[in-house]
Design a protein that fits this description.
With 239 residues, this protein is α/β, with parallel strands linked by helices. It is built from nine helices and ten strands. A hairpin with a 7-residue loop joins strand 8 and strand 9.
């Protein structure tokens, strides 16, 4: 039996400068304003998000639960969904973009299915889809592979694997990195991948200084970009 309460998946703006109402639909904002139970990655930024959304009630009257990379894998998340089982809607709120994609919230969504709680994804920005849309690469066959290994030798090996898979299947490979490691990742891409492989770098999406550029590895080697401290999506396809 499906519970009366639902788990709503709430997206967040990707850039810090964009007004919430400019990127989050009116329908999504209306649902946010009706919810009193929130599972969030970081309490401070979630409270700031909800304040900007003009929810119409005191932030201190809401119930918050934190779920992030520091939450132990063995931690029982059942209490986070008890409100839904009691008939109240619960929201999973992303830090940026869409929840549960390269995001610890996927654990909560999986648990909701196990407990027969209806899961409702709401519309909003996704850096992965925005980057794919703007890349000009294959949008009918693609794979998001998350983060690559941190150490350079392992990362270079993984890049060769992805390039080989991309060439075999004509499949666009999407991956991301922690902003302070963007430069190291780009350096490994340029030193490892073949000259004719296409690479798109999509940085600071939705911000006024957004960069979205697709060109061959050979062309990237003569291009100077500053990716430090900028959220980036990398997309690659090879012949």
């Amino acid at each position: 039996m499906i519970s009366a309460g639902k788990l709503f998946l709430i997206p967040a703006p990707i850039g810090e400068k964009a007004p919430i109402e400019a990127v989050i639909s009116a329908g999504t904002l209306e649902i946010i304003r009706s919810i009193r139970y929130f599972v969030v990655e970081e309490l401070r930024t979630a409270r700031r998000y909800l304040s900007k959304a003009n929810i119409g009630v005191a932030i201190d009257s809401l119930h918050f639960f934190e779920l992030n990379e520091h939450t132990p894998p063995e931690f029982d998340l059942s209490a986070y969904l008890q409100a839904a089982l009691d008939g109240h809607d619960v929201a999973l709120l992303s830090e940026a973009g869409a929840p549960a994609v390269a995001d610890p919230g996927a654990r909560l969504v999986h648990l909701a299915h196990q407990k027969n709680i209806a899961v409702v994804p709401l519309t909003g920005p996704s850096s992965l889809l925005l980057a794919l849309m703007a890349s000009g690469l294959n949008g009918q066959n693609f794979a998001f592979v998350g983060y690559l290994p941190v150490k350079s030798p392992e990362r270079q090996q993984r890049l060769r694997q992805l390039e080989k898979r991309s060439a075999a299947d004509r499949q666009t490979q999407l991956f991301i990195e922690t902003p302070y490691r963007n430069e190291a990742l780009l350096s490994d891409i340029l030193s490892t991948c073949r000259p004719n492989t296409l690479l798109c770098v999509a940085a600071n999406l939705t911000e006024p200084d957004a960069l979205i550029k697709t060109q061959t590895i050979a062309e990237w080697k003569t291009t100077t970009v500053d990716l430090r401290k900028k959220p980036c999506v990398f997309l690659m396809i090879s012949d």
